[in-house]
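User: two proteins, same treatment. go.

Assistant:
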Amino acid sequence: MSDRWFLTVDGKRFDWVRATIMGTELRALVPGLNPAFGLVREQRPLETDDQPVREEESISLDDEPSFYSVAPSTFG
């Protein structure tokens, strides 16, 4: 078992100390993220719709997920 887990946000790779991350922790991890923007998880396989990350959501990092930031009006 690894002591570090990884994820990507807007093409930049980050490491994390646990196998899960909360939506609020994910937002705090990304320096300079516009607070008005949302984060969206890229779904695999690509045929599935991407899903916005909720602040209270617990996200598994087992498959090294990728996220991207979006303007507030994109989802919602």
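Protein 2:
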Amino acid sequence: MNVKKIVKEFIPPILLRTINKIRNAKYGWKGDYSTWEAAKQNAIGYDTDDILNKVKKSLLKVKNGEAVYERDSVVFNEIHYSWQLLAGLMLAAAKNKGNLSVIDFGGSLGSTYYQNKKFLDKLDNVSWNIVEQKNFVDCGKKEFENKQLHFYYDIESCQKEQNPNILVLSSVLQYIEDPYQLLDELMQYNFKFILMDLTAVSFENERITVQCVNPLIYNAKYPCWLLDYNKINFIFEKNNYFLVESFESLNNYNIIERGRSIGQYKGEIRMKND
């Protein structure tokens, strides 16, 4: 038994809970900003090399068989599946004669691809295409690209080479300055399916905040929306995407601020109504 475990055994539970609250209070969602620019003044961006290098290091372990799963640069010894997301992928493949062509918008270096690779490899044909920031695309092309996994700087370039039938938006909309406009613009590409996962929505009014990441993961503070779900739903319906299924991501994981639930992560499978 190490020292930390010994100490914990002798700390009264009520005191231990207080210590954990103080520690966790440093991280999570902070502030209610009037503009995105104001939130950016108190943030450290996703495009820093430190974040890229940590994600790269962890995913290379997965690629090389030294780790099983990666999320947010943290490696795990078992895969944490989003079964709803996987169901959406399999539905898109089933509707396309076993072929799956994905645009994973903001898909890092392939976290979702590697998460589901065991199942993707059973399909007849898979093209997993990530559209990301330049530094991630440069790294992806050099270190991770293969016959299935590809990296692009923009959607137009991807569409010229691939024939995507599903758009994946996993943990991305809330980190965009104008997420509703982006969502509306993405629908103009007429993907047959749109799969949304890990999207932060508010229990109350939409707000702009700053998400402070625990530095044990990496040092980052992101501008972040807690989105209005009604606006998201309106955009889908306006563009003739009907709801196949909705779900709560991360086992109903709530977004906490000062001990109070202010939102949660949602997901949806949407299909174009031709």
